[in-house]
Design brief:
Blueprint: H1 3-13, H2 17-26, H3 30-36, H4 42-50, H5 56-62, H6 68-76, H7 82-88, H8 94-102, H9 108-115, H10 120-127, H11 134-140, H12 146-170
Length: 171
C-alpha cells in the first residue's frame, strides 16, 4: 500500500461516521471517494454511490454491493458505465431497475425492454428519461395503464413542441 493511500485511510478512519458521510456526499476528490467506496458503513457507500464525482471504477465496484440501496444509487449515477447499467437492468429489485430507466446513459435496447415490462411504474419511469426515443414514447402513449398513457402523450407533445420551435428558429 502506498504511503499516501495509507495516510488518507488513517485520516478517514479517525473520523466519525457522520463526518465520513459528509465527505462522501460532497467530495470532489476521486481518490478519497475511491477509498470510501470500501467503507464498512453502508450509508457511506450509499453516499459515495450517489456522488456525481465518483469514478466509473468506484461505481463498478459499488454495483456489487450487498445493500440494494447502494446499487440503486449506482444505477442512477450519470458516471456509471453502460456495461454496469446493462447488468443492473436485470436485477430483480424494481427500485434498481427504476434508477436504470431514469439514467440518460441507459442503452435504448434496455429502455425498449423496460417500456414493455409488466411493471407500470418501470414503464412510467422510462418516460422521465430524456434519452428515451420518440418511437418508445409513441408505444407508451398506447399503454394500457391510463397514467403511463397520459404521461407518454404529454411528453410526446412537449418534445414535438420543442422540435417545432427549433424549426421556426431555423427557418
Amino acid at each position: 500500500m502506498k504511503n499516501k493511500e495509507l495516510g488518507v485511510q488513517l485520516a478517514l478512519a479517525s473520523l466519525s461516521s457522520e463526518e465520513r458521510v459528509g465527505i462522501a456526499e460532497v467530495s470532489k476528490d476521486k481518490y478519497i471517494l475511491n477509498i470510501l467506496r470500501k467503507d464498512k458503513d453502508a450509508l457511506i457507500r450509499f453516499c459515495v454511490a450517489k456522488n456525481i464525482n465518483t469514478s466509473p471504477e468506484a461505481l463498478t465496484y459499488l454495483s456489487k454491493d450487498e445493500w440494494s440501496e447502494v446499487k440503486s444509487k449506482v444505477a442512477g449515477n450519470p458516471n456509471t458505465p453502460v456495461d454496469v447499467l446493462v447488468t443492473l437492468s436485470a436485477d430483480i429489485r424494481g427500485t434498481i431497475r427504476v434508477e436504470v430507466a431514469r439514467n440518460t446513459h441507459t442503452p435504448i435496447e434496455i429502455l425498449d425492454r423496460f417500456s414493455k415490462d409488466e411493471d407500470s411504474n418501470l414503464r412510467g419511469n422510462v418516460l422521465s428519461n430524456s434519452s428515451t426515443p420518440i418511437e418508445i414514447l409513441e408505444t407508451l402513449s398506447k399503454d394500457l395503464n391510463k397514467l403511463v398513457k397520459q404521461e407518454a402523450s404529454k411528453e410526446l407533445s412537449r418534445r414535438k413542441g420543442i422540435a417545432k420551435k427549433l424549426l421556426e428558429l431555423d427557418g
